[in-house]
Amino acid sequence: MTIGQSLASFAVVAALLTVIPGLDTALVLRAAVSRGRGHAVAAALGIGAGCLAWGVAAAVGASALLVASETAYRVLTLAGAVYLVGLGAHLLWKSLRRRGDALPEAAPAPGSLWASWLTGLGTNILNPKIGVFYVATIPQFIPDGTSPLLMGIALAIVHNVIGMLWFACVIGGAGFMVRALGRSRFARVADRVTGVVLVGFGVRLALQHR
């Protein structure tokens, strides 16, 4: 397998994984609706940074620890579960508290872009399933005679590029929905859906074994 064939084959796998509705898509959609396009882009970049970190870890063998050590896997799993449930519960509480308090239609909720980036980063860094995915797939796409580290980074970048293209579609679609339904109404719905998704993922993560 050549480097080009490896990158192309991994791109197909990464694209299928990316477009399946899940936690990352829900976070970016919620940020676009509730906080504006800039925050959605920041969250998407944070998610991408988390994927890149896991890709590098898989390439150098660090994330193999999650496969070899039940304790390490469980500790990271519980930390991720607590983070996701806490974040989801916060969104649900905020959406219910603001039920009768309309958001300005032309002004997204303010806040720090850095916080949005960290939210995206945290959801990936604290999700051991992503590490296991990378450590299980990246070695299969490293051609003989190439640097595992450089090839792992290249594959993670391919995943990031595909992810950013998908998130661009999500952000564009969110803008259309906001114009059609109004920001206040759609923001509350997005907060509740994302909150349920986060809590659900967190509980599933806490209860699920390998």
TrEMBL record:
GO terms for cellular component: plasma membrane. The keyword Transmembrane helix applies. One of its GO terms (molecular function) is amino acid transmembrane transporter activity. It is a multi-pass membrane protein. It comes from the Bacteria. The keyword Lipoprotein does not apply. The chain crosses the membrane at residues 6-29, 41-66, 72-93, 114-137, 149-177. Keywords: Cell membrane, Membrane, Transmembrane, Transmembrane helix. It is found in: Cell membrane. This is Threonine/homoserine/homoserine lactone efflux protein.
